[in-house]
Amino acid sequence: MSIRSTLNRSLLLPILSLVAIAVVVVGVATYLAGNAQLERRIQTLSESSAVLFEDLLWQMDYDTLQVLLDEYVLLGAITSAHIDAGLPEEIWAGSEQTGPDGYLVSRELLHRSGDSVRQIGRLTLETSRDGVWDLVKFSVAVTLLVAILAALATTFIIQHLLNRGLVEPVLAIANGLDSWFGDWRDFRIDLGRGESPGKHQQDELDRLVDAIHGMRDQILTADRVIESKEGRLLSAARIAGIGYATFELETENIVECDEIFASIVGQTVDDMLRFNIRQDIVGKRVHPDDIEQAEAIRQQLRQGLAAEGVFRVATAAGEYRYVRQLFSISPNGEGQATRILTVAQDVTELHHLQATLIQAQKVKAIGNLTGGVAHDFNNILAVISGNLELLEDIVDDPLAIDYLHTSQHAVNLGAELTQQLLAFARKQPLRPEVLDIARMIRKSLPLLRTSVGESVDLDFVTDGGLWRAEVDPTQLEAAILNLIINARDAMPDGGKLTIEAGNARLDRHYADLHEEVEPGQYVCIAISDTGVGMSEATISQALEPFFTTKDVGRGTGLGLPMAFGFAKQSGGHLKIYSEPGRGTTVKLYLPRMNGSQEAARSTLVGRSAASLEGLQVFLVEDSTELRETFTTQLQQMGAVVHGAPDGDTVFAMALGIPCIDLILCDVILPNGMKGPDVVSGLQEIYPEAAVVYMSGYTENAIIHQGRLDEGVIMLQKPFSRRDLLTAFTSAMAECSADG
Q1: CB-hemisphere CA count at 13 Å for 214?
Q2: How far is residue 361's CA from residue 365's CA, in Å, rounded to a whole number?
Q3: Are residues 587 and 631 in the same domain?
């Protein structure tokens, strides 16, 4: 029976049942007070015992639990107690009460570890209401004698005031709180007092309702803030590709994992929750070279230390991805490390970018070094080569002439080495032409077959409708020859070597995965062999200069780097595909050219002049030894030579020289004035003069984007007198065409 029903019935019979009302009021009040005290006592007992029981149950100290329950029953606090933990034998004390006189309280026993909570059992306490009824009987007997008259006068007033001023508002508040399970934004308690001003003065219950509404607003505000922060945090984690997981320190079983963490290794969350870190991840997925690092981190974690590392982890498809992980300790309530929290991020692309940056820095460093070395070394070779030619004119002994030829051959080899370094550094002067690649390769097949030998079966395959490419033919032939020789050396016992020329398209996805590659159409030259192949580690170093797997004296380690540098300088790409024991394929991609006609070669070809007899030559060269060597050679060829080391000297000398037929100028000059600047000034004085540049290293003075400027004739040091005559002929032809 509710308080409202009791009050209403007491109002119906205020006079006819004064005594009964007094007895009922006192009995009900006593019963409610005693029953509430009984309920509070057993509730307090269950709450105060829960923490102790949870710890004992988690520690599996069942004997102590049984002793405590027996003592509770013996002391009369409860009539029976029961702990249900899923054990074969339940923990029980006392005797179970049945019927309405029994009062039962049930409570979950929980274990908390870090942020996780799990149920480990249930505690049930039961007591009897017999003591309450005894208290009621005693109270009624005592108060019946002294309260009959007072009850008659005060019953109606008290019940009326309680019903209007307290019971109804409290019931409204209680019912509102107990029955609400919807959206808290719609929650509101109405005491039924109306909202007209002046009719009701605000009391404590109104303030209580206002406080509850204020708490509701604060909860809603906090919820919005939490939801916003959680949303931003989750979005940031998804954007960064950061996933998390938790595993037990002792068993190393994964107990928690999100989708991002699982996707890093190509698994589902359900699969990951069945995995063991040591057996299924480290043992089967981590790269063998990274297992030692994983073991070191494992020992750190067992010592209670945080750790981090980057591992190569194989996905379900077998692809290794670079994964950065951070580990932290999650202690239990006693401060002991029981679980490991880890976050992981796929940093494969970052690793590739770092590797690409290192490679780019290496290429730049080698390029800078190569430039200085090429300039000085080629000048030295030019002095040696020039003096060897001068000696050849005055030596008659056949043995001495053989020595001179051997020395000249060594000079040529040194020049080729320098050119290969310049090719890798992408600093060689290119003379691109629109070529039919298939026709060029067919013309080169006799030379290529001779280069690979009879033990290698060389085959050439091309697609119909092959596109044309704009590329330097001389450098392309050298690149193909280097790749062919590498393929031959990979097949010491012979085999099959295939050259394929076809059209190819590189899409945006491929370009994003490879540095300095633009999506578009390319002509692809693929050279495949059936040789020993290369490992992944060898492929990663194959494009580095001077790296070689050949025996000493069998290679310089510049063939692949030269081809790679040439491809990049030409706007193309080079890619190596290989596996140990399965051969190698090197694909050389050259940008497609839409031109329909093959351009005429712009290299120095054709009939050269017989001599320079009687010609006035302005020689500009900063190296004294080289200037003297060139002067002697030119004079022996019949020319009148005016030599100068720099631009200032040139223009001072030009005042006394009326006519010049040929300007032979070094590209790199000291004192702030480069070769093109000197030539430009001399052409204003001698507009009819032909111009030939000399260079050991050109920088960007007459080469832009890897190409010689239009109409420029250049001799690469060291060069022969025959090369000089050919260059002079071409320069005269160019000069006549411009005139």
Answers
A1: 6
A2: 6
A3: no
Q: What is the pLDDT of residue 714?
A: 78
Could you say which residues of the chain have pLDDT below 50?
197, 552-553, 596-609, 700-706
Strands (E), 438-595: 456-462, 468-471, 495-506, 520-529, 573-578, 584-593
539 to each of 481, 607, 654, how far by Cα in Å? 20, 45, 56
In angstroms, how far is CA 55 from the centroid of its own chain? 45
218 within domain boundaries: no
CA 451 from chain centre, in angstroms, equals 44
Whose structure tokens read 């000297």? 649
Residues 316, 443 share a domain: no
Digit-coded pLDDT (tens) for 64-106: 878 888 887 787 768 888 888 777 767 888 776 556 667 788 8
Q: What integer pLDDT is reported at residue 157 of this predicted model?
A: 67
Residues 6+ apart with CB under 8 A from 287: 311, 312, 313, 314, 320
- What CA–CA distance (Å, rounded) separates 14 from 3? 17
H helices present in 430-548, as ranges = 437-452, 473-489, 508-513, 536-541
Is the domain of 645 the same as that of 720?
yes
Q: Dihedral, CA atoms, 632, 636, 638, 643, nearest 10 degrees?
A: 0
Segments forming the whole domain that contains residue 646? 616-738
Partner residues linked to 694 by β-bridges: 666, 715
* Cross-strand bridge partners of residue 715: 694
Instruction: Report the pLDDT value the prediction gives residue 154, as an integer from 0 to 100.
Output: 62
* Tokens, residue 710: 């239009």
What is the predicted pLDDT for the residue at 642? 92
Last residue of a domain, which of 318, 346, 374? 346
Whole-number pLDDT of residue 531 = 87
Yes or no: say if 414 and 551 are a contact pair by the CB < 8 Å rule: no
Q: Look up the CATH number of the domain holding residue 505.
A: 3.30.565.10
Closest of 72, 73, 92, 74 to residue 82, by C-alpha = 92
Is residue 726 within 8 A of residue 387, CB to CB? The reply is no
The two tokens of residue 205 are 């219950």
Q: CB-based contacts of 442: which residues, under 8 Å, 6+ apart?
A: 460
On whether both 584 and 710 belong to a single domain, the answer is no
Give 263: exposed, middle or buried? Use CB within 10 Å, 0-12, 13-18, 19+. middle
On the CB side of 728, CA atoms within 13 Å amount to 24
Distance between CA atoms of residues 580 and 586, nearest Å: 15
Task: Confirm whether 420 is domain-assigned.
Answer: no
Assess contact for 714 and 594: CB atoms under 8 A: no
Give me the amino acid identity at 28: V
* 166 DSSP 8-state letter: I
Q: Is omega for the bond preceding 88 within 30 degrees of 0, making it cis?
A: no
Tell me which amino acid residue 25 is: V
